[in-house]
Amino acid sequence: MLIRTLSRAMLALATLLGATVALPAAAADAYPSHPVKIVVPFAAGGPADIYARILAQHLQETLHQPFVVEDRPGGGSLIGTDAVAKSPADGYTLLMMSNTHTVNETLIPHRPFVLMRDFTPVAPVNIAQNVLVVNPSVPVHSVKELIAYAKARPGKLNYASSGPGTPYHMAGELFKAMAGIDVVHVPYKESSGARTAVLGGQVQYMFDSVTTMAPQIRSGKVRGLATTGLKRTTVLPDLPTMNEAGVPGYESVIWLGIMAPAGTPKAIVDKLNAEITRFVSQPKVKAEWEKQGAEPMIMTPEQFGDYERKDIQKWAPIVKRSGAKVD
Prior knowledge:
D-Maltodextrin-Binding Protein, domain 2; alpha/beta; 2 domains
């Protein structure tokens, strides 16, 4: 009798364990069963917002549930990011992040979250160069001329960014440090505000994403001086790189990716990674993004996590050397 009772108990336990093992797969099969929110911790109109909406449309079509983009800018990405960190780890709230987040790990030591502890990597999206532009009223036509102009006017020139820790801010601080110039950082709450200030001549220059600034350069509303990658971009092939323009060793790009709250089931993470990878691997997507100056990134969740950790390590000494601070 005891043996039969134990056998029944063991069978019940085995059945329970089997059901538990099957749960993640079942959860992934059923996911998503209702709308998914992608939080963009930056303002509307910038690269993160634009590509989040492109990605959301694809995911909505393939996963047959609404993927809604919600812009929650502020605090150099902290406000929207913290909201996602505090969300349920069920795959229904995602974060569109950028290398702003890896920079902030050093730049803002007292954050309400730790990136690689409170989030799980899902998939990268794309990578693009920045471009250094000046208002046409600034009498310079090259990076060397801008450096000379700034050195002749220490503390008199301003450069704009979309806020502390953003790729545009760090691109500007890296330029200051490597060129040895004294210019003033003017942070805005979003990239559109910084862009408008440079277009209107209130601020002399800024680093901005090639994907958003190239049309302004072509129309003559701003003057492009150099791009920030190690090779020239096909979008603006006539512009030299910063290396070619007289700042050897300079490199500053912007990349985007998707993360989810820590603890999100791996099966759901893997499903999202597979769908995002399938989308960015399409030849038509690659071709269209190349026209805009962006290049798709393809990694597993584990590879993306390694990439992020290396980016945190890469920027830590640069942030410290530049002396950049959040006011």
